[in-house]
Structure formats: structure tokens, C-alpha cells
Design a protein that fits this description.
Elements: E1 9-13, H1 18-29, E2 33-38, H2 41-51, E3 55-59, H3 65-78, E4 82-87, H4 102-123, E5 127-136, H5 149-169, E6 175-181, H6 187-190, H7 197-206, H8 216-227, E7 238-241
Parallel strand pairs: 1-2, 1-4, 2-3, 4-5, 5-6, 6-7
Helix pairs in contact: 1-8, 3-4, 4-5
Length: 248
């Protein structure tokens, strides 16, 4: 059986750790050349060392228009267009309303909303007919997690944008869907509770049906499905991959 992305070019933002890195790994396994972004050069270097010629690593902050322009210069240089895009770069932290600063608002919405918008917008000239985009959402968009309002609000905005873009891009034959991971064992998740990330993992896992957090590769498998021809009938959808957290 042919690999799902054989000979295709993909883009993964925030692809140096956690879910993003798992998606890069899966896309490469399925035959894609992957353009990978991240903000930390050391992590990008590690990705480049692991995957070699199968990736193009570009240091880019998704919220910075100049960095986004540099990213798509690299995409243009390949000359192959884009067949699959995973917009995964995002940021969040626990902070109660009373402690939120204007800088916190700018950071959360700058990366999660502006960054997502700039990335999808920048990809438009390169998307081939039949291309697929997956945006990483969050269960926090429901607005029920205390002290997580900025992150949840930004992800709720992204969910609305994605549905709107699905309608706009459909005439081009381009699909865009949102994946909504539940608690996933990643450096980013552990970083929500600095210095005590393992305790956070244990606490959350104890309340989940499987008694564990999701593994990044489990989320990556669904991202692959959403960019593959197997999901050709889907656009504007939200796919929840939460390890059963909604029934816990």
C-alpha cells in the first residue's frame, strides 16, 4: 500500500516537541517532506538531525509577520506547493482573571489567534487543489477550566475562524478541520505547572477513563487521517481526541 503522503510536501508549525513533533515523525513515515517551524534553534537543530533531508527546519515565531514571511520564502523555494498543513504552534498558562496582565492577553491571542491566522493566510498561495489543513484546538475552548480563560478564549476564537475558513476555502477544493486533543503527555502540558509537571500528569491521569494521558502519537494518527484522502468528505469539522475525558 502506498504511503498516505508519498511525494507530498507538508508544513507543521510548532513541530519541535510534543504533538507537533509526533506529527512530523508520522508525516515523514508516510513519505512527506516536512517544513517544520519552532522558536528554539536548538530544538530545530535536533529535528533536522533526526530526519535529515526529509525536513526543512525554519526558526519562526508564528506571531511575528517577518518570521512568517521567512517561513513561506522557504516553502516557495521548494517549488512543490503544500499538500498538508498542521497549524500547531500555540501557547497557554494557568492564570486567574485577577492576575491577568495586558501582556498576557497579547501573548495568548498573538500566538494562538494572530499566529494561526497569519500561517493559514501565508499558506494560501501554495495550497494545491485537494490540500488539507488541520488546526490544533483545545477542550479548554469550552470555557469550563478555571484559571485557563485566556488560553480557552483564544482557542474558541480559533475554532470560529476555522469554520469560517472552511466555507471560504471549499470552492478551491481545500479542506480545513480542527483537532481537539484532550490532556496529552507533552513538555507543554507539564509546563503548565512549572516544577511539578509530573504531579499534574498523575493528578489528571487519575481522573481519566484509561488512567493515563494521551500519547502524542495517538493525536498524530488522527492528524494524518485529517490530511489524507481518507477524510476527503470532511471540512469545518472538530474532531475530539481526548482519551474519554468528556465522559470521565
Amino acid at each position: 500500500m502506498d504511503a498516505a503522503l508519498n511525494g507530498k510536501t507538508a508544513l507543521v508549525t510548532g513541530g519541535t516537541s510534543g504533538i507537533g513533533l509526533a506529527v512530523v515523525r508520522r508525516f515523514v513515515e508516510e513519505g512527506a517532506h516536512v517544513v517544520v517551524t519552532g522558536r528554539r534553534q536548538a530544538q530545530l537543530d535536533a529535528v533536522a538531525a533526526e530526519f535529515g533531508d526529509a525536513v526543512t527546519a525554519v526558526r519562526a515565531d508564528a506571531s511575528d509577520p517577518a518570521d512568517v514571511a521567512t517561513l513561506f520564502e522557504a516553502v516557495a523555494a521548494r517549488g512543490t506547493g503544500l499538500h498538508a498543513v498542521h497549524v500547531n504552534a500555540g501557547i497557554g498558562e494557568f492564570k486567574p482573571l485577577a492576575d491577568v496582565t495586558p501582556e498576557d492577553i497579547d501573548t495568548a491571542f498573538g500566538t494562538n489567534v494572530r499566529g494561526t491566522t497569519l500561517t493559514v493566510q501565508g499558506a494560501l498561495p501554495f495550497l494545491s487543489e485537494g490540500a488539507a489543513i488541520v488546526v490544533t484546538g483545545s477542550t479548554a475552548a469550552s470555557g469550563t477550566e478555571r484559571n485557563f480563560g485566556l488560553y480557552g478564549g483564544s482557542k474558541a476564537a480559533v475554532a470560529t475562524l476555522t469554520r469560517t475558513w472552511a466555507a471560504e476555502l471549499a470552492p478551491r477544493g481545500v479542506r480545513i478541520n480542527t483537532i481537539i486533543p484532550g490532556p496529552t503527555e507533552t513538555p507543554g502540558f507539564k509546563g503548565l505547572l512549572p516544577g511539578n509537571g509530573d504531579a499534574l500528569v498523575q493528578q489528571v491521569a487519575a481522573g481519566l477513563p484509561f488512567g493515563r494521558l494521551l500519547r502524542p502519537e495517538e493525536v498524530a494518527a488522527v492528524v494524518l487521517f485529517l490530511v489524507s484522502d481518507a477524510s476527503s468528505g470532511m471540512t469545518g469539522s472538530e474532531v475530539v481526541v481526548d482519551g474519554g475525558s468528556t465522559i470521565a
